[in-house]
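User: Hello! I'm new to structural biology and keep hearing that structure can be predicted from sequence alone. Could you demonstrate with Pyrroline-5-carboxylate reductase? Please show me the input and the output so I can see what each looks like.

Assistant: Of course. The first part below is the input, the amino acid sequence of Pyrroline-5-carboxylate reductase. The second part is the output, the predicted structure written as tokens.
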Amino acid sequence: MKIGIIGCGNMASSIAHSIKQSIGAQLFCYDIDTDKANRFSQVYGAIRMNNEIETVESSSIIIIAVKPKDIFDVLEKIKDGISEKIIVSIVAGISISKIKEVIGDKKIVRVMPNINISVQKGVMGICFSEEVTNDEKEKIINLFKSMGEVIVTYEKYMDAITAIFGSGPAFVAHFIESFVDAAVKLGFPRQESLNLILTLFEGTVVNMKNNMLTTQQIKDMVTSPGGTTIEGLVEFERRAVKGAIIDGILKAFERSKNIL
Ligand SMILES: NC(=O)C1=CN([C@@H]2O[C@H](COP(=O)(O)OP(=O)(O)OC[C@H]3O[C@@H](n4cnc5c(N)ncnc54)[C@H](OP(=O)(O)O)[C@@H]3O)[C@@H](O)[C@H]2O)C=CC1
Ligand SMILES: O=C(O)[C@@H]1CCC=N1
């Protein structure tokens, strides 16, 4: 499989890392910043191309991993070389119909991954334009399945997937940071606290998954009547922490709907 990547930033690196670990496809890459493209090429064994169109010509699947403001520029440059190739956009908030406005009725896949694909623990939404055949869909789904869990979905759900799973790692990191700050406030060193708190999060997740526990069951098991945990939970409720988190995710959802 020959995969071209246009834009060699954070997400492209996560994707390339995952592909290298799992299916080992031949990668071709291009970034407007030559130093970045060179580094990417060295780290992931990708062949560096001189421009967007060369990248398209060398590949059968082309992943566009530039910021939303840059995608239309890229599409303009590649539109004449696409033919039957598959264009995969991971760009937040840009619909298949917007992409078609520039390149026409081509084979287009929209994927919303998250950075956890670099450790094969991503959760990603995928939807297809009607030009993509069933065999091609299967190929793309298998490619992304090597990076984590795939939700094959309708495009109308992509903004929600962006807000929950695309942005999710940053939100989770924010919660972890709150625990670390609390530990530092209570006199523990930051780095040691971070490592232990990561085990706290991981342990809770593994416990819930392995024992099929709901959030309520975990809370019931931990919260002794009149004990310490209820004091913390009551304070979280008083400060509407859950409402603030939900509102934060809804803000991300609104932004995904109106990114440009
Ligand atoms: N980061 C994340 O967790 C996620 C991001 N996404 C989406 O992925 C896309 C990429 O995000 P991310 O990797 O974080 O962004 P980055 O800014 O890290 O990477 C984008 C790269 O593309 C380069 N670029 C800009 N224009 C062109 C061009 N015409 N041709 C080639 N390269 C170009 C940029 O260069 P320069 O910086 O010089 O402009 C930059 O190096 C975004 O659209 C985002 O919505 C989706 C899911 C999760
Ligand atoms: O913040 C962003 O816009 C991108 C999309 C999802 C995660 N990062």
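User: So the tokens describe the shape?

Assistant: Right, they're a compact way of writing down the 3D structure. Reading them back into a model, for example: The first helix runs from residue 10 to 21.
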